[in-house]
Amino acid sequence: MKKNNLVQALIDHALARCLFAALILAASAGAAAQGRLNISEVKDGLHVIMGPGGNIGVRLTSEGVILIDNKFPQDFEEIRSLVADVTDLPVRYVINTHHHGDHSGSNPGFLQIAEVIAHKNARENMLRGNQEGLPRTIYTDETSVFLGGIEVQVFHMGKGHTNGDSVVYFPDLKTVHGGDLLHGIAPFIDYANGGSSRGWVGTMNNILTLDFDTAIPGHGEIMDRRDVLNFRNQMESVRARMTDLVRGGLSAGDASEEIMDPDLSWTQVENGLFMQRSIPGFFNEIFTEIQ
Fold first, then answer.
1. The whole model's pTM is what?
2. pLDDT tens string 254-271
3. How many angstroms separate the first and last alpha carbons of the chain?
């Protein structure tokens, strides 16, 4: 009997150790999940939350917060926690720059506490993709949010990344949030949802008519006006290169290899979304244009 009791005690001790280790791992995983984002000031009254997913703009006002995008579904609580680090006021509005889930994934959570706004095409793209958290408020050409004496302007300036991109402008701060119309590494042209390289150039020209000196891209570090101009110029350059290649007899199968050029940084990021997912549609777009 004593031997059996000793064996049972050893088993119980081993199980307790395993349970304790599991709890430690679970706590560590939760802490890691909650620590993957960070918030920093862009200008007085404007912050950005960076980390996996799209960059979030955080506009503070005396009556609450206006968010631009909201990353993935699992980020909802951490976003709220980071906002609480810079203000005691609640999130009142969320503006989706487009429908992709790394920018609108926390819509279901925020719809319980705030109003979510998007371009009508972005909402339609969400519907077609069976996404949760559909915006309750949409616009067509432009709209504004007024809160605490602050105006935030929202424009649909044309096709580009998708057919439902919003450009968010903070006129008092001379700052824009471009969503994925601006990308710090290499852009993705989402042809399945109305994206267009030709439209993107026109949209960039429209953005450049705004009076701004600072830009928050959808991904990557904060930009200045020169960075935005360089982005527009590279879009023109990759279009010109693809046009020359197609006119020279380029086949669709060779497009990914032949488009590469050391002077075009987007084509040097082989695992980037431009090279990985945009080239087939890009080839077809240019091929169709020159027919």
1. 0.88
2. 999 999 999 999 999 999
3. 91
